[in-house]
Amino acid sequence: MSKQNKGLFAFLAGVTAGAAAVFLSKKENRDKAKEVVDQTVEKAKKIKEEVEEHPEEIGKTVKDEAKKIVNKVKKEMSKSEKKEKEVESKAK
Q: Which of 13, 75, 84, 91 sits between 20 and 30 A of 34, alpha carbons compared?
């Protein structure tokens, strides 16, 4: 990593920390953030319990969703390839 990138990273980290400090300086915002974190933890616990109770069912659901995503990506890639070929043929 170059010196310039290190400086940029340090700058962005500082800006992020500063923004978080300003946001969390208000009790109302801290309470909202805590509520969101608590809800997320509860959802994660429920998902963990569900996976432990029905691992095969969850595995099948995940595989099905992954297949849908793969097919969608393949479809988008083929569209992109067709557009590239059209552009190339027009350029000639």
A: 13
